[in-house]
Amino acid sequence: MVRASVVLVAALLTSVFIAGSAKMMQPKNVMEKEIRLALLDEIQGENIKANLRVLTKEPHQAGTEANERVAKAIEDMYTAAGLQKVHTLTYDVLLSYPDWDQPNTVAIRNPSKGVDIFKSKGVTEPILPDEQGAPHAGHQWLAYSAPGIVEGDVVYAHSGTPTDFARLKEMGIDVTGKIAMMRYGQSFRGNKVAEAQAAGARAAILFSDPAEVAQGNRDDVYPKSIWMPPEGVQRGFIMNGHGDLLTPLYPAKPGAFKSKTAEEAKAEKILPSIPAVPISYTTAYEILSRMSGPTVFSDWQGGINVTYRLGPGLRDGLKTVVDVKSSLQNRHIHNVVGYIPGHDEEDRYVILGNHFDAWVYGSIDPNSGTAILAEVARAMVELTKTTSWKPARSIIFVAWDAEEYGLIGSTEFVEEFVQQLGGRAVAYINMDCFQGNFTLDANAVPSLIDVVIDVAKRIPNHVEEEVQAGRKTLYDTWIRTNPGPNGEPDIKPLVGGTDHVPFLTFAGVPTIDFRMENTTRKSYPLYHSLFETPFVNEHLYDKPDFAMHRSIGRYWAEIARTLADAPLLPFNVTRSAEEMHSNYVVELKKALAALPADPNLDEAEQQIKMLEKASEKFLYRAQHFSTHALLVKDDDRKLRGINERIMMTERCFLNPRGSPGASQNRHVLYSISDKDTYAGRVMAALYDAIDDYVANSDKKTSGRAVAEQISIIYHAVHCATNTLKPFL
Ligand SMILES: *[C@@H]1O[C@H](CO)[C@@H](O)[C@H](O)[C@H]1NC(C)=O
Ligand SMILES: *[C@@H]1O[C@H](CO)[C@@H](O)[C@H](O)[C@H]1NC(C)=O
Ligand SMILES: *[C@@H]1O[C@H](CO)[C@@H](O)[C@H](O)[C@H]1NC(C)=O
Ligand SMILES: *[C@@H]1O[C@H](CO)[C@@H](O)[C@H](O)[C@H]1NC(C)=O
Fold this sequence. Notes:
17 strands, 4-stranded antiparallel beta sheet, alpha/beta, binds 2-acetamido-2-deoxy-beta-D-glucopyranose, 728 residues, 3 domains, Aminopeptidase, Transcription Elongation Factor S-II, Chain A, 7-stranded mixed beta sheet, Glucose Oxidase, domain 1
């Protein structure tokens, strides 16, 4: 059925195009609509489903032979799809593994008798052995944990945020020498372990609380529903930073010099120096049900059926034992790359990416995305064969390796090609995984917000009830479930945690990152567990035709087509300027005004005035530029010049020195704060400087640091204004 309609459209297109390949001859509007419809039609749910099965046959952590087989499978998919110049890029990076023969455990010990009254198995048993039964699939571990055996007293530290540890301190509970037990959620797990270590803990235990992962009836969990079953465990990495640890700022090409050692990374607190282990809520029950000490603050109680206590320690003198075996290893990783060369501008890139390495089978994170991307590639190439359509700019498809270990594959790639990307990349569009089936959720830099919204309005809704309620497009459900200010969906410039981060923060390439999700903007319950196998996608989230997965593919493809084809890049620089002028600067002034009067902040006040003026000029210039740019039609040389100025305006926001203490975080507006790797706080380095000023007794130095951070943003805004002007 679907095939037939494609052929029809193809025939129509061929007749429209046959006149010649020169793009000026194409009746643009008619053509664009036909191409769009043909592209949407070409993307097939069944293909995504088949791809997913191929990619999730075995557990495939980065650096393993199994993951090399997945890389090869993707290469084959890209080649079969008809992408050109398909190849892999190899890097030699520091990874971490458990001891597959000796699982990590948590035990409860009676020290007087020298016996363990409870010991976790350290391995989750499969529920669907056909999909989950590979050797070692069930191992529970956290990558980059220090190895070690720690016997001691547990303290419950809630989510392990700085605020949580401060509250424990106020309660007079000393974490020094203890084992910090923390639940997942609220912050990145690596930050939790780092906070525990800083508070003096000798080990960390992380658990999934049913309050987050099993909200329904306890009998209604996986495989009956999407809620985490009793033995499910979230894996993940706990290093603080991204990219290969041993080659900061430079690509870890095999044989290349390693400028840092693992010991140095430990001393710098990038690598944790305490053992850490993840457990299920069933194992957490064994500990929490025996805890002594005061009951927790009411907002710290979780969903396990006992009254949570702070500790320290268990009743009756019982001790807790954390036993972690792990090792750091240098391994090869492989990014897979393929192209659809641009017809008019080969050296302008629209880059689409997702990672393929997984903690276990990865059917949601990340291979739902990998499977969709391969289908987007196939559909786009197919269109170039069945019609005379060719993207005007090159579209690059990339599958990243070792994202799960800290965005390593993408970071090394960006470090290797930072100059070329800086000059040639139009945008990077990431989709990590399909983690829910209800609504789109997209984040983007301000200049690309118009694109993410406009495209969402062109993609039919896949949720039947929504369509029946009159919400016919992805946009209609998105704006209803995730409304933000200004009558638009809530779109953040950058939320951390996946592969768009190095593109934006190191190379200044504008990014879009999106996903399909439930309405809550949270993770999904089975996240990083053994149970992420195709059954979840096929039976719990989607229908046999994979219509929901297809929807995401359609959105991705249409964004790519839009950015690759539009003669004038559809970036809205006025939006960037408006955001700066009416939002960031205003918020910054408020933050400074809230501080007590202090002459040590005079310089900062002066810099704010400079920034305010500069942002007014930027706004004026952007409006002028946009009006002018729209008048430039059908003059390729002029358009290319205008487009180049748009691209280079974005690059102005890179500070070549990076944020203090984090030279890879070069974007002055959208770098991720090391204080919380998941959060996307705008102007993080500046707000970190303000926090330091508040906390620091040396007000003179810390006040000057605030002024300096403001001045860096001022220079960036001034640069953007100058870039929009044709003359200096
Ligand atoms: C609480 O949960 C545990 C573990 O699931 C179970 O063994 C126990 O019987 C439950 N206790 C009550 C009072 O429901
Ligand atoms: C989304 O999640 C909420 C809360 O977890 C749940 O009540 C709701 O049914 C979910 N919606 C869909 C469409 O799955
Ligand atoms: C969407 O996912 C929810 C689980 O969150 C599931 O209950 C529902 O059936 C799914 N919808 C479809 C159409 O498969
Ligand atoms: C660009 O954004 C501004 C500010 O949000 C808006 O007023 C304007 O209409 C947008 N321009 C285009 C061409 O959509």
